[in-house]
């Protein structure tokens, strides 16, 4: 640093200057950049590490990200010319002559290389550096498989408030011991610990240095004790953080300027510098989903604070119950969250779904052992769930590749192992430890982001000693699937799914990628409609349309499509068609999801610039063949963009098809999820090519796949009681799904066969958890005049099989009269299946 003095107007000004690049004090040319390994010591000069996470490399400062890292030098004579004199950069990254390193890292490791800089006069200097290409930020969380989420703090019953309450809290936590907490997590099979260290009561559990109006903070640094204890035991510590501070409405802390945002910016930086491994930000930061103030947690300022001060810290943005799987703050988010509810029933336990986004993310599901997030003094209010129920749920989530986070509340004294949960926790831990760890997921030699012009050979790899099992038919691979022995020939667009099994370890997560082959045979196939396949563009009775010229662009990159229900016969879908509009030339992602549980079945792509136009005016993209089950509902959507036009459709005039019914329009977010979207009620009509499975045995259920509705007993429409209890579930042929109306205990299921049929038998399968004790079954040909087929009282049967004299009818009702309220026998009526036969 150089001092410069200058006399101006009789006043002596003294100021300092820093030696900037190109202006070294001794004039000698030198490279000032340091290695990635020194980042935590010298973040201003060190190479920002890359992450092998399928997205473009970024380097961060608190000012924000850049899509490159700039090597720096000083001295000599600018401008500088850069090159790699020896060694290599991580695969996928390149250094240009201006000193910028950019690209997408594709292989992990520490890469020694020698940087060379040449100045304008030909002077040169070299420096040995190391560039780290780390695993994806959340890889460790993905690998953790099991952890704990502990709800505990000043708010714990009996809850305390204000500064006096904090003092009482610190006196009463006689059983809190960070080392014991960490050891208990280890003993129970956990690999991570999340704790509410800054909950909505505004109290931070450390002696924070960020000023606030009420200074609601502990004198004891509980957070640092937990971080250090966890790290000593080899487990990671994640800080729960609530952006709002108003759980106690009469004691609300803010920054000195009266805002949450200023306070939160300071607190997050403190936590990152203190050494937390991750941050779990609660739902009041999800302003895309809820009506909360964005400035409570200003993400555009907050993410750079996290990334600049610790490149490897991860964060999860909680979307709340019923919004599990929604991707927010992409591509910067590291964890997709599924949060279970507080009911004591199994339906409150969330089950995660695989993600369809390209970035490597961890999937977390957090479910409650009890029916409450925070400790309740009255034991009658606590209902810990059965162990077998929890283990079933853990298995389901592990099958989806999720890290399972078990949550339970801790009493006021800080005892992490309350007697009320001990036996169940031990039993769950016994199961977890027997199934701990994953085998490493297979890796592929091909990229699923490339469209190949000809057939390819796909190589799968896993650690030495592993066995790889794979499928090409859409089924999930198991140890009984085909054993991988040699490269797989991919001659057509194919979905490849694979697992690896290492000795002594459970099977890996599923590798699942669609490889697109645009060879001549596919292009020809896409342009024609063979006799054994149906092109159901839903308006096939009309003349072939002229090439569309009018259309709509999608500035938010939403998916636009339709929801369908398959008829009484399964269909094998082979091609998805999008209306051709002159000038379109983009590649569009295709997604197919099961409607009942939002499970993604397939992702593929449609290249509007490469595919021919069929006689019906559609461009057909071959997809890996997928069977859509009879009676089931599906979402099929294509991602649109700002450049290509699509033909919008509101589906008010819903067309008819042979193999399936179109129910309504569909919109998905840019990440292929239900939320957040702007519901303008516009989808697009897609054309599907498929084979029909004509193999049918026994009687045909005429209700299978037909239109079903939830109604009040006065026939006003009702919604489902939860986001999985759709009316269609009653006619989907799957007894594991349930239709249940919300808002009313007595309610009616209405089924429309679409035309009058002669019916002589009806079958009702009630839900295992709720049945009607008094109900009517009614039929009508015109939805006006109704005939009662049965009126049953004092019912305790879960399966009702009715035989009656043949009746000509199109509409059927199952109308529950009792139970009438909570606590009545039977519980709320749920219908697993409603079937009709001739």
UniProtKB/TrEMBL annotation:
The molecular function terms of the Gene Ontology recorded here are: alpha-L-fucosidase activity
Q: Where is this region: Disordered?
A: 522-556
| Record-level GO BP terms | fucose metabolic process; glycoside catabolic process
Q: Which GO terms describe its cellular component?
A: lysosome
Keywords on record: Glycosidase, Hydrolase, Signal
> Where does the GH29D-like beta-sandwich domain start and stop, copy by copy?
451-512
EC numbers, comma separated = 3.2.1.51
Domain (F5/8 type C): give its ranges.
726-820
This protein's record includes keyword Signal: yes
Q: What segments bear the compositional bias annotation Low complexity?
A: 529-548
Is the keyword Hydrolase in the record?
Answer: yes
Q: Where is the Glycoside hydrolase family 29 N-terminal domain?
A: 174-435
Q: Which InterPro entries match?
A: FA58C (IPR000421), Galactose-bd-like_sf (IPR008979), GH (IPR017853), GH29D-like_dom (IPR059177), Glyco_hydro_29 (IPR000933), Glyco_hydro_29_N (IPR057739), Ig-like_fold (IPR013783)
Q: What class of enzyme is it?
A: hydrolase
By sequence similarity, the record places it as follows:
Belongs to the glycosyl hydrolase 29 family.
Q: What is this protein called?
A: alpha-L-fucosidase
Which organism does this record belong to?
A: Dyadobacter soli
